[in-house]
Amino acid sequence: MEKKVVAFVPIKLNSQRLPHKNILPLGEHSLSWYIFNTLLQIEQIDEVCVFCSDEKVMEYLPKGVRFVKRDSRLNGDLVKGHEIYEAFINTIDSDIYLLAHTTSPFMSETSVRNALINVLSENYDSALSVIKKQTFVWYKGETLNYKLDDIPRTQDIEPVYIETSGFFIFKKDHFLTHGQRIGFLPYFQELDDIEAIDIDTKEDYEFALRIIEPNKLLQEI
User: Fold this and answer.
1) Assigned superfamily of 5-130+161-220
2) Which residue from 101, 121, 99 is spatially nearest to 181, judged by alpha carbons?
3) Res. 57: pLDDT tops 80
4) Rounded distance, CA 66 to CA 69, Å?
5) CB 191 within 8 A of CB 111
């Protein structure tokens, strides 16, 4: 039986660290436009939704996105992501959900599609975007992936994987049963450094502008 896949992107128009972050201009579009455009290109996704309390957000998104209104109570700075995801799932039914964020505008269609295909294949119960770091890592004052008295070559060291906020793919029944957006057998979709960029601060935004407007950067140099 074919599984229904719904992608959703939570957005609030008021942001604390970077005011009006989701509707800031980035190249020819708003910051939020890019991830929606990417999701709309993936044929395995049945519906792409924006979950927002203000329909004004539709002015900044590509055609084909469905507006799903969320309670303005969920716009609070202390509201946890889990509450938002649960509210969406209770509103829009699906077998599989793809949660993405506007703050990853450089996420590639190829990466998202590959992760989704791996979940649809039933070989994995979920998927998430990660960056792989094969380097010397410390945690709480101790080495995490090597021993001080036996330092390996960098190419031989055990890599670590770091979650990005790019996307998470999970099954409805798993989320409702365990309250988790990552399953017990997740697929790690590795991103390159550009894809993994997450825009949360003014400095992040300025860096993204330099990437998307290389000609402007060359003029400054």
Assistant:
1) Spore Coat Polysaccharide Biosynthesis Protein SpsA; Chain A (3.90.550.10)
2) 99
3) yes
4) 10
5) yes
